[in-house]
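Our consortium's second objective concerns turning raw sequence data into structural hypotheses that experimental partners can test. To show how far this objective has progressed, the report includes one record in full. It was chosen at random from the queue rather than selected for favorable results. The single chain below, 224 residues long, was entered without modification.
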Amino acid sequence: MDQLRNEFIIFSIIIAGLGIFFSWLLYRYQNAHVIHVRRFERRLAAEKEDAALGRASSNITHEIRNPLNAISMGLQRLQIEADEIDNEHHVLISNMLKAVQRTNSIITGLHRYKSPLVPRRQKVSPDSVVDHILTLYRPSCTHSSIAIDYTPEFHQTITADFDLIEEVVENLIKNAIEAQPTGGDIKIRLFKQGADLVLSIENSGFDLSEDEASDIWVHSLLVA
């Protein structure tokens, strides 16, 4: 009886061990299958989004490029034929042409949202980029009673993508202007810090009520 009981216990332990082992194998298999299905679904969703983005970008490029070309030709004609325009307005026209060209480059590069971004590196003067953007937005700042304090300490060139640098600087300055609807100031600094080049843009901002701040926080959570 003792021998039978011991054999029964050993047999039970073996059966339980095999059950646990095969249950673990089944769990691993099911988990791997679920992960594979989820990856496939994400890849399929991404491919659908890429296809939709490709169609949308094609339509956007076609619809926007035509008026951009008209604006560019009009500015070029002003630049060539308008002899009575002073030097300041010639500079403004030149900067507007550059803005049109940059916009055209952005439209042409819409495919970067569905493929890895490859910067086109070239010699870029960050000081000139900031000057160019400020020339475009200075009238808006004057109209909105926003004072601009720009003190560059770096006047050399760097190796970077010119269009991307201009896009970043323009977005930062534009956001700083829009953040001060009742007027204020924008303080811009360009300086070298060790091996890094630092572009600092500060603005006085505006006051928010508790309800508005709460709405921004909720919106940020929803977007995230």
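The partners drew two points from this record. Confidence is low (pLDDT under 50) at residues 218-224. The domain at 121-223 is CATH 3.30.565.10 (Heat Shock Protein 90). Both points have been shared with the crystallography group to help prioritize constructs.
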